[in-house]
Specification:
Layout: H1 2-14, E1 18-26, E2 33-37, E3 47-53, H2 55-58, E4 61-67, H3 75-89, H4 91-106, H5 111-131, H6 137-159, H7 168-175, H8 177-187, H9 200-210, E5 214-219, E6 226-231, E7 242-247, E8 259-264, E9 275-278, E10 282-288, H10 307-317, H11 321-328, E11 338-344, E12 348-349, E13 353-354, E14 359-363
Parallel strand pairs: 4-7
Antiparallel strand pairs: 1-2, 1-3, 3-4, 5-6, 7-8, 8-9, 9-10, 10-11, 11-14, 12-13
Helix pairs in contact: 3-6, 4-7, 6-10, 7-8, 10-11
Protein name: Phospholipase B-like
Function: Putative phospholipase.
GO molecular function: phospholipase activity
């Protein structure tokens, strides 16, 4: 046993882990952007990034993105810089993730069907862009998330050679991977399964293809502790994991959440699993709801916010579970239908009590 432990330790030490850091600068005059590798300049940069390619030793890569000074940059520049740093530092991983995900999600679709998926994302994106405004905290925050998304594409393509450039659809598909599960059923009626006619093995296969994740929240009998755990059961091709840390300070609003950590994947600006720990005191977990009443998909719509966008916004703006639930319900796309569990650690008093509102369970289906 000792020799086996020693061998495993040696293998872990010998596994290659490559660390990279960078700072993103944005010109206030013409908005041109540049990234300097090997430098962490938090005083002058729009964003700094640190990436540790440690998957071969720990099973996880690590990414940390920190926005810069609000005195020198607008909030949109800060978020664009944050996305740029992530896209640049994780370019190789994003490329592999997209190749894997495309095969999993779209390999059985015709080119005409894929074009319909592209059109869906374009319609949704245009609808969102038309509503982004500085006059509403809600839509202002949506705009910041979109600036990060645009920066992610810019940073990726700045680092990629000509043979590995990706268009906006690639990033729509990466970030909307969960939403795609239900977008497909919305767009293609002929692909909707007749649940009543499925055999038990076929039903099991459907649950496997469309389901995602399990979660557990456990309080010890004497309130000695509370545990929140998560399993992101997914395809083997999605085992390329990055644990991410975002530290975003904005001038445009007093956001309850400044820092968050979450399990994620290359090219995703969200967890997808979902598993988030936030400095607001909120912990959010999720498990996917399968939709068995296929007529509900008639209530899905591209003229709404995708689930990943609403989750990011709710995490940023909510200070408790009730507010989180309210925000998530706004402009429901009816895609990536989940049960969300929002644990408010501010209402958990170890060894004493748990206040009302410590746990909110929020469920989404199309139209509701």
């Amino acid at each position: 046993m000792k020799s086996l432990l020693l061998l495993s330790t040696l293998l872990a030490v010998c596994a290659t882990a490559v660390a990279m850091s960078a700072t993103v600068y944005i010109s206030p005059a013409d908005k041109s952007i540049r990234l300097v590798k090997g430098v962490v300049d938090s005083d002058n940069g729009a964003a700094t990034g640190y990436f540790n390619h440690s998957q071969n030793s720990t099973g996880w890569d690590i990414l940390r993105i920190v926005t810069g000074s609000t005195q020198q940059y607008s909030d949109h520049d800060l978020m664009r810089g944050a996305g740029y740093a992530e896209g640049y530092l994780t370019q190789v991983q994003i490329w592999y993730q997209y190749q894997n995900l495309y095969q999993v999600l779209l390999s059985s679709y015709t080119q005409q069907e894929i074009q319909q998926v592209m059109d869906y994302f374009q319609t949704q994106r245009q609808w969102m862009e038309d509503r982004i405004s500085n006059d509403s905290e809600f839509w202002y925050t949506v705009g910041l998330i979109y600036s990060q998304f645009q920066g992610l594409m810019e940073g990726y393509n700045a680092a990629a050679d000509d043979d590995h450039k990706l268009d906006i659809f690639a990033f729509d598909l990466l970030n909307g991977a969960g939403d795609f599960i239900d977008i497909s059923n919305f767009l293609f009626r002929g692909r909707r399964p007749d649940v009543q006619q499925l055999t038990p093995p076929q039903l099991k296969s459907m649950l496997y293809r469309n389901g995602h994740c399990s979660a557990l929240i456990k309080v010890l009998p004497g309130f000695e502790n509370v545990f929140a755990s998560h399993s992101s059961w997914f395809t083997y091709s999605s085992m390329y994991r990055i644990y991410k840390y975002y530290d975003f300070t904005m001038s445009g609003g007093a956001y309850p959440t400044k820092m968050m950590s979450f399990s994620s994947y290359p090219g995703f600006l969200e967890s997808l699993d979902d598993f988030y720990v936030m400095d607001s005191g909120l912990v959010m977990l999720q498990t996917t709801n399968n939709v068995f009443n296929m007529t509900l998909y008639d209530y899905a719509t591209p003229k709404a916010l995708l689930a990943w966008q609403r989750v990011r916004l709710s995490n940023w703006l909510a200070s408790d579970g009730e507010q989180w639930a309210f925000l998530l319900a706004q402009f429901n796309s009816g895609t990536y239908n989940n049960q969300y569990m929002v644990l408010d650690l501010n209402r958990v008093h170890i060894n004493r009590s748990i206040d009302d509102g410590a746990l909110w369970v929020v469920e989404q289906i199309p139209g509701y």
